[in-house]
């Protein structure tokens, strides 16, 4: 399956090394192997494969390879310094693609910087736009499919929902048992699993680590570390409140969403909000990675409880306000309030089951599936 980043990565490989990150099983290896077909000679090396690990440590790969693909090398000690040497010492014209399922800039410290030596891309799950383009279906059908299956390629392409559910059960087990162990101790796994289970029921709500810490009988600082690990492994991501003072926004309560909407426990409205969150994050990071634009994803919440699900900013300026609804076409009160407060900001109310699009109280009330299909990625 051709992905939305294929052509961009291929173009950048002609000038610099490319670092491709993203969740486990989001399609990085498939993308890499598809790109290998565009080169006369290509070699794929995975740190997790013992024979490949020997080749990587010895740097004994084929010097005539037009493309080198190196997977999971962030698990190598002092990998940044090692990769800097590889990038600087490779033959002229030799393309280098580095992939990894954990955020390669996190939990690893090295003295040498890779700045200026690579372009970075983050591969995301399938969105409404991508599924429409790949399968030739209408946006409503695509959104329904993603709400049921999530956006990861294997469950998306599975023959039936049973196979998708089997994949997800194994995926979740492997994430906790294997990936989380990379950053935590064995005796913490049960607590980490309980933490994830609780997060699955709190999607879209402001996250109180202190409250969960009391439930789990652990320190809030421990849960903060667990949350950092879950983000580093692309299991969850956080959305922070919008504030002109970025420092204050970071200190305020975030909301948590899962990269895999299929892991969410909640009604259709919660699943819709999580799916929209994943596609908005994909949009933001696509614009950051492909065009260098300074865009951010936030939400808005005031002390009196008025809240809008999502907000887009660019270069520190609020650009869009976005509210998700299952079937309510009445303008959301908080959205109308903030639309009036920020008259230069576009206000959109996305409705899953909408009979008629309209513009009321400064708000564009529009079909959720059609709007999502118009995103850039």
Automatic annotation (TrEMBL):
Signal peptide: none annotated. Residues 15-131 form the AAA domain. This is ATPase AAA family. Pfam families: AAA_14, DUF4143. Residues 178-326 form the DUF4143 domain.
């Amino acid at each position: 399956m051709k992905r939305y980043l294929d052509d961009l990565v291929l173009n950048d490989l002609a000038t610099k090394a490319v670092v491709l990150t993203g969740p486990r099983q989001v399609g990085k290896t498939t993308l890499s192997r598809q790109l290998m077909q565009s080169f006369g000679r290509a070699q794929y090396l995975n740190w997790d494969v013992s024979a490949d690990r020997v080749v990587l440590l010895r740097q004994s790969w084929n010097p005539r390879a037009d493309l080198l693909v190196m997977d999971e090398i962030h698990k190598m000690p002092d990998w940044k310094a090692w990769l800097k040497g590889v990038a600087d010492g490779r033959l002229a014209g030799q393309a280098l693609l580095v992939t990894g399922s954990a955020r390669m800039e996190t939990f690893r410290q090295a003295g040498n910087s890779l700045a200026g030596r690579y372009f970075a891309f983050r591969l995301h799950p399938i969105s409404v736009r991508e599924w429409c383009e790949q399968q030739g279906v209408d946006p409503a059908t695509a959104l329904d499919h993603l709400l049921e299956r999530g956006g990861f390629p294997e469950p998306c392409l599975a023959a039936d929902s049973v196979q998708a559910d089997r994949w997800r059960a194994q995926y979740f087990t492997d994430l906790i048992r294997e990936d989380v162990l990379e950053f935590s101790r064995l005796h913490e796994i049960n607590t980490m699993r309980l933490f994830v289970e609780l997060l699955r029921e709190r999607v879209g709500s402001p996250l109180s680590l202190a409250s969960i810490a009391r439930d789990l009988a652990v320190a809030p600082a421990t849960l903060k570390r667990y949350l950092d690990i879950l983000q580093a492994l692309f299991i969850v991501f956080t959305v922070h409140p919008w504030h002109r003072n970025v420092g204050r926004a970071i200190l305020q309560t975030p909301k948590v969403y899962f990269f895999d909407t299929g892991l969410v426990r909640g009604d259709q409205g919660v699943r819709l909000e999580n799916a929209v969150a994943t596609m908005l994050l994909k949009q933001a990071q696509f614009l950051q990675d492909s065009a260098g634009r300074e865009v951010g994803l936030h939400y808005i919440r005031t002390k009196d409880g008025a809240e809008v699900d999502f907000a887009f900013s660019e270069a520190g300026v609020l650009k869009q306000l976005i509210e998700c609804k299952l079937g309510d076409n009445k303008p959301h009160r908080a959205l109308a309030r903030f639309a009036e407060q920020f008259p230069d900001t576009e206000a959109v109310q996305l409705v899953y089951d909408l009979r008629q699009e309209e513009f009321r109280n400064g708000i564009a009330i529009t079909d959720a599936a059609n709007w999502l299909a118009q995103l850039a990625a």
